[in-house]
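Record type: monomer structure entry
Structure origin: computed from sequence
Chain ID: A
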Amino acid sequence: MEVKEISKAVIKRLPRYYRYLGELMEEGVERISSNDLSKKMRVTASQIRQDLNNFGGFGQQGYGYNVSYLYTEIGKILGLDTVHPMIILGAGNLGQALANYVDFEKRGFRLVGIFDVNPILEGIAVRGIEIQMISDLPFFLKENHVEIAVLTLPKNKAGEMAELLVTNGIKAIWNFAHIDLETPENVIVENVHLSESLMTLSYNLSKYRQEHKD
């Protein structure tokens, strides 16, 4: 069966839908219209309907959306109904902060290993997981089914480590290194450039200041 091509903009909005629907469930809301959801998300009701129609719609005329059902279905679309074992390469401040972020497990992302090149860090436990040396990585990946790797190493090490990950069967890399990785087409890379996000924030702040000068 042919898989429908979904735009990147729609895919980027799905986690927001999921988060807001989760908040609505916590508030005890059972159903919501696209108009009410649009006010919460600051996306037009038409856009919401178009986005969800890519996956079947889920709404009923005159009723709106069942919050719990839509939350579950979007979770399935995002692959959150499956447990994703993952590893972190780079046990510095950022790597350890990510390892300590418990919400990953709530979403099905289960941290199973932390690796670094610094022998001083070897054996230190982060949330019960001992940091191992990267030299142990090939054997670990051979013995454990892991598809996702989080890369928080300096950019001069990132390319080499990405090659090592790909060679040993990793299929998805969450890349925090300040470099665009070159990987085979069958390896998915999601780049998170924190400095670029901060520069975007700076631009918007400068623009706001110019627009609101006295």
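Annotation 1: The longest strand covers residues 109-116.
Annotation 2: The chain has a mean pLDDT of 90.
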